């Protein structure tokens, strides 16, 4: 089956708690439901929106965390990736931004689009050390080093 090509410019939001852990979502591609993975919050920019504005909007839509664009730090890297999702062959420019959140932050999927609700099954806070030692699949593969850059953490002890 031929996939529909799609080019996206995305902002990835990295909420970080007071224990230097990043919030990730757990879900799956509807075309491959038996291959779940962990991924960062974020999505494509909308008309006239900056990457930082898109990151702030996506934080609210995907996990219910409200932030103004100027509260986000970064960017912490930019990369271009290619992957398949559902009927699409996606080429994605992605830029990462961080937001420090308090211990009282509440995660909610209430504002997700239906397809996101249908394919997102959980969330979890991850430390850089946990990312480096897990056998679970997560994206991007270099997330532990991005998290260490943001938090000022060194390498493994």
UniProtKB/TrEMBL annotation:
Nudix hydrolase domain segment(s): 6-149
Q: Output one GO MF annotation.
A: hydrolase activity
Q: Which family does it belong to?
A: Belongs to the Nudix hydrolase family.
Organism whose genome encodes this protein:
Nonomuraea jabiensis
**What domain of life does the UniProt record list for this protein's source?**
Bacteria
What this protein is called in its record is 8-oxo-dGTP pyrophosphatase MutT (NUDIX family)
Kindly give the SUPFAM superfamilies that the UniProt entry links to this protein.
Nudix
InterPro entries for this protein: Nudix_hydrolase, NUDIX_hydrolase-like_dom_sf, NUDIX_hydrolase_CS, NUDIX_hydrolase_dom
Keywords attached to this entry = Hydrolase, Magnesium
Needed cofactors, names only, are:
Mg(2+)
């Amino acid at each position: 089956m031929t996939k529909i090509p799609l080019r996206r410019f995305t902002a990835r939001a990295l909420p970080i708690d007071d224990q230097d852990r990043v919030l990730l979502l757990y879900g799956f591609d509807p075309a491959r439901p038996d291959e779940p993975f962990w991924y960062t919050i974020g999505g494509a920019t909308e008309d006239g929106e900056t990457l930082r504005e898109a990151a702030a909007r996506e934080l609210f839509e995907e996990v219910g965390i409200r932030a103004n664009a100027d509260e986000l730090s970064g960017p912490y890297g930019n990369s271009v990736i290619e992957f398949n999702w559902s009927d699409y062959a996606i080429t994605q420019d992605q830029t990462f931004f961080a937001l420090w959140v308090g211990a009282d932050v509440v995660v909610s999927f209430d504002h997700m689009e239906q397809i996101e609700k249908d394919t997102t099954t959980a969330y979890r806070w991850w430390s850089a050390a946990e990312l480096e030692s897990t056998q679970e699949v997560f994206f991007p593969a270099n997330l532990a080093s991005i998290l260490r850059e943001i938090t000022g953490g060194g390498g493994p002890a």
